[in-house]
């Protein structure tokens, strides 16, 4: 198998933790419902490929995301993989369901813009934060880790460019609430490296340490990996990615294409940054899932490595 | 039209010159022969979109690249665009043909590896250099600018990773011969940012100034734009790209996907780096050409910007 030559670059972390979102963020955009056993096998194979954090599912009301209505059935099937298995919880009811199954990490999903908060949650930004507060507080009381997702951190399909100060305010609110990790989402994929650097610097100056930040880039305009490089150069060590490039955001105009985990691993391996992931096993997993879904992976690395010459 | 927010980053050039290769490197991989008038219109539209350097065609023997057998007919049709129109010349016969039509810039195409020199030119690396020497010398005597392409600068499908010293030796030979610009090609798309930085640094130390270097990345593994960012951070100001992501290399295993000019312009515009290119006009040009070719552009930016919501 072709692999990159390893040549480190200065000023980059020695290790990056990949937060794999394919099984949740990726699959939730699939129209045809994927069988629970396929999802479980997908998660087991991702764990087998060396991914240490695999977002497993969402305890959202089944009416809103029918694809993930099997959370209660799925979670027990994968609990024994031995990896971190965060789950999305939209509210206290979702938290109850997750805790009842023994989830040890949960995530809430906030928005940096009023338009998306309204579209996604039918709430203002502050109303959404108020809804998350008891979720976060109760999770912490149970010793459960909480990740705060923040969407639309760079641009918004209704509002256009999003002011950095606005993103800092909501991120800080989530951090102050007790979220131990904040994932900055470029939901519509418009960010560029200078913008990434400016937001990370502003958050740092506002007292949110970079060690608590993750980046979540979309490849809508082909920018996800260069933005990731910029984030690494600013000290970020947690990167969200989706195996095979699965997914996007169904509520956001033109928001297609999570950063493919394979494209990310290729770059990190070339840079000599440890991830624990075996690129061959990961690619095989994405090829296998693409067969289950009946269409090819959009990841360029998956396509190139699985190409029969 | 959605556009990135402009946020400059430190340590990057104020302006980048894009060397547009779609009309030559892109089209030469198309099996169905594109009518000469369509090629001419493509080049005129690229010039209209603000591209200042458009590689127009190749004066290779028609037997080898039937797609470009119309070089004599095409070149006079686009000469009046007023932009720089370099043309590829494989040997002295090609140079004669280009000079007869009034070409003011030519390019030769060398290889950093023996395997590709053999496959592409049926010569050793040094035999190929010897063949180029009179081409370069005569072009300079005529006051014609010469670009030297160097392929397989990072990896080679037969040889694997390519040692940096080997690339430095051949690049220096082309520079010493008189090529005023050297384009470093990642023909199979395997490079990563640290490798890019190491090669640029080594060339600089060997006396080849960065101002004479261009980078030519392929997106086979999704790495082209992050490698470009790394090159800009090392002072490179000339970047090769192909409108709509047209092309690849027919002789190199898995070598698909030139960096799409639109994806590059998106990043540069976001960084506030001047290119003179109008992204809307450029995208419209790639959409128009895709219609002529009968299939969608692989550029993510073209797809996103031309998507009907």
Rg for CA atoms of chain A: 18 Å
Strand tally of chain A, please? 10
Structural class of chain A: alpha/beta
Measured as a percent range, the helix fraction of chain A is: 40-55%
- Count of helix runs of chain A: 12
Q: Which of globular, elongated, flat, extended, rod-shaped describes the shape of chain A?
A: globular
**Number of structural units classed as domains of chain A:** 1
Q: What share of residues are in beta strands of chain A?
A: 5-15%
Q: CATH first level of chain A: which class?
A: Alpha Beta
**CATH architecture field of chain A:** Alpha-Beta Barrel
Fourth CATH level, the homologous superfamily of chain A: Aldolase class I
Distance between the termini of chain A: 12 Å
- CATH fold call of chain A: TIM Barrel
Q: Which strand order do you get reading across the main beta sheet of chain A?
A: 2-1-10-9-8-5-4-3
User: Based on the structure, what is the oligomeric state of the protein chains?
Assistant: homodimer
Pfam family, one (chains A, B): HMGL-like
GO molecular function (chains A, B): hydroxymethylglutaryl-CoA lyase activity; metal ion binding
Keywords (chains A, B): Lyase, Metal-binding
Family (chains A, B): Belongs to the HMG-CoA lyase family.
